[in-house]
Amino acid sequence: MEGRMPETPALGLDGLVGGLREVYRSGRTRELAWRRSQLKGLISLLTEKEEDIFDALREDLGKHRTEAFRDEVGVLVKSVKNTLQNLEKWAAPEKAPTPLVSFPATALVVPEPLGVVLIFSCWNLPLGLALEPLSGALAAGNAVVLKPSELAPSTAAFLAANIPRYLDSEAVKVVLGAPEVGEKLMEHRWDKVLFTGGARVGRIIMTKAAKHLTPVALELGSKCPCIVDWLDSKRDSQIAVNRIIGAKWSTCAGQACIAIDYILVEEQFAPILIELLKSTIKRFFSKPEDMARILNEKHFNRLSGLLKDHNVSCSVVHGGGMDPKTLSIEPTILLNPSLDSDIMREEIFGPLLPIITVKKIEDSIEFLNSKPKPLAIYAFTRNEALKQRIIKETSSGSVTFNDAIVQYGLESIPFGGVGQSGFGQYHGKYSFEMFSHKKAVLKRSLLIEFMFRYPPWDDRKLGLLRHVFRYDYVSLFLTLLGLRR
């Protein structure tokens, strides 16, 4: 099924982009009424076509409808409703303070749409990573081209068929096709490009964007670590394990940029953690359909290859079973694979979970700082001092304590990477701001004029300027009145 979807004819790309610019220049996308109508259209699409969405995600990734609702449909409806509720406030000009020397004057920060923007979404959350940024771009008043991933063809076809029915088909376009189509899109000038995917393609996007000085936001993957500072309470330990499993195996079988990539734990607690993981995995995944499958044969072979290294295969302590016919891989736990192995150098993006032991949990901070900055750091701990050290001494897109992945569903905090895990932040108000320009507006009166701003220069004017830049307005006025030299 991979790649078997209709492509947008290359012949139409020039006209498509030009048509979007005409729509944007008409001014209709700037109107709040239009923006509200688009957000309401997204909510209608998600609620009325829920079963079709479930079917598409099942075909592309083998996702159970409950997982699909939790990670893509439900969280999206919640997010778009939040945007709709707050749109007027976000779009309103914001007053800014002005110094007394500029009196009488007013200053404003006015959010304005960027123009015509391009969004590349990826295959692992093919609905959520398409419509979440799209909602922000529409809320900000832009015209948009959405390029879904060709690796999730059923979801891409669903978006192409339904977005024109629920949104303004002249202002929002879905372009289908292989990577070559994406490259052709990048030959055009955009007012912003958001790309979600891997670093290799991200570099290509940035290189092509440089031709037109197009601003780019990149949402890339990384090896997201999870620190487990052992919890004394049996209940707390079980909850931690539940959440670790949820963030590794019950989210697209670990094929998510914010999934836990590996665990750091003190060596004395590793056996206890492994046994608890094993027993809970058995309860959670008693049926094959409870876990999504691997995307395609290529990705299946990549994951299989990670385990073929002798230094890795001998460290498997649970799972390891694979079925190439169904593209399924068991939840697999590895203990202390070689740090030089591919599985510890590359982002895993699958249901393989290495556990790395340290002498004491504080050593995990030095371990993290020896690696590239991740998209997320997770830590299960009651130790407030350790929490503060993680916040202050490490760098990552986000830090979540005593849970994992749930930060993605919060509209109140930004989502995005840092360093090699990407740049640019979105979700909620941050999506609106990503696709907006904050325009500075200053309005002054002609009533008062300060001539010391202008030549000819002398020491008196220099003194007055010193008062201005020190905000010493008392001295300034006394000097202007001739009461102070």
Automatic annotation (TrEMBL):
Entries under InterPro entries matching the protein: Ald_DH/histidinol_DH, Ald_DH_C, Ald_DH_N, Aldehyde_DH_dom, Aldehyde_DH_NAD(P)
Catalysed reactions, semicolon-separated: an aldehyde + NAD(+) + H2O = a carboxylate + NADH + 2 H(+)
Pfam hit, one: Aldedh
Residue ranges of domain Aldehyde dehydrogenase in the record: 29-441
One of the protein's GO biological processes: aldehyde metabolic process
Gene3D superfamilies, alphabetized: Aldehyde Dehydrogenase, Chain A, domain 1, Aldehyde Dehydrogenase, Chain A, domain 2
GO-annotated molecular function: aldehyde dehydrogenase (NAD+) activity
SUPFAM superfamilies linked: ALDH-like (SSF53720)
Record's keyword terms, sorted: NAD, Oxidoreductase
Superkingdom of origin organism: Eukaryota
Active-site residues (renumbered): E219, C257
GO cellular component entries: cytoplasm
Protein family membership: Belongs to the aldehyde dehydrogenase family.
Protein's name according to its UniProt entry: Aldehyde dehydrogenase
